[in-house]
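Milestone M4 deliverable, item 7.
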Amino acid sequence: MDGACDHGLTGLAPATLARRGFVMSSLITGLTLATTRVEAQTIHTDARGIVAAETKIPVSDGMLPAYVAHPQGAGPFPTVLVIEEIFGVHDYIKDICRRLAHAGYLAVAPELYARLGDLSKMTDVGQIIHDVILKAPDATLFADLDATAAWAAANGGDAARLAVTGFCRGGRHTWMYATHNPTLRAAVAWYGPVVGPTSAIQPATPTDVADKLLCPLLGLYGGQDKGINMTDVVAAATKAKAAGKEVDVVIYPDAGHGFHADYRPSYQAAAASDGWRRMLEWFHGHGV
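Output delivered:
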């Protein structure tokens, strides 16, 4: 499963997003059902000293469910948009938000696939990919993340200190969103695919637009990733640097895909811890 979310995820025949409301009106309770087993090392970060809760983000066609965590007090707090894996905003993604809140951030994770399928009930990775992930237009992704950033700025976040991070498919989205929003100060992509087929609703890969990055980007990758070729990642970074963009790619030679996902067998504590440290340093170093 570890590399499954990275194969062919940018290709899809054109589709129309119907205004039929949201399939998911609230977030997943617990961990995703699509994992084969839950690992004993799963991390749980408590909410003592912070504020953490589900919320709703106003978007063009309704209210997007989301999870937010931030320090106590009025703020404004530096803000991180957290982009989920293909499995929805479940306990792992919520925990990441709480970890960031303990580090001083307002962290918010919108359920970007709420219109397309109920990820809380899906157990088959192939179904998730083909019935949900491949039907998500990039234009909608950008609009939802813009709306989330605006909501954060109106609810204790600092619009002048905005970053984005994402995991797996969310790593791909991090690359893409960093070419869209000029107010971003920093981006950190965790093992996001940078190549793949394109389509009318997903018209570009991160490599295609690497020279259009609007903020510094850090990429964190596993050298043993079966779904992402490190040569492709280095090529995307090289293209960005040739255009004068600030990009740094860190490859953990012994780690595979999903090395930060502590609830899965792919987890590697040393790489995950080092990557988290580098992410926070990247944010701090770029004004977030």
